Amino acid sequence: KGVIIYGGINFPGHAASIGLSYPNAVCDIWDYILGNDIADGQNLISLNPVNNSTMEMVSDLIKEIGNAFGSKYVHVGGEKVPSFAWTESKNWNEIKKFMNEHQFQTTSSLEKYLNYKTQNAAIESGFTPIIYQEVFENYGSKTNSIVHIWKNKDQIQKAVKTGYKV
Known about the structure:
Elements: E1 7-12, H1 16-21, H2 30-35, H3 52-69, E2 73-79, H4 84-87, H5 92-101, H6 107-124, E3 128-132, H7 133-139, E4 146-148, H8 154-161
Parallel strand pairs: 1-2, 2-3, 3-4
Helix pairs in contact: 3-6
């Protein structure tokens, strides 16, 4: 009964604002954005999966947001990363090496990895992660996450049948 208010973040895409405080936590794709005159290009900035401190920052941020709102829920997003946000970044050579070391064949596999890591960070901090339906549909998710269905209501039944709360 009542309203539950919880905080949220958008990872692994839409991370430009994080780059202002943690420049090494995001990929540097500004040359590509400016060279291609991409409107609203800041929404193409993604987390840098290679930097060891990136996931530490994500975990700390989840704790801070969760504690600030006093809720057991934290929306951890699952914002899509266009593959060129990694492949056209100045970090691409490092990312390719990281992908090879972890046997990721595609950037979608890398995105799935980051989504799992973000959900795990919420769970390890004592919060229930809420994820966008795209994570459920495309990347797999942890069944103790809650799926935020926002565009395809047919997914409600599918998510519930496979053990998720929505």
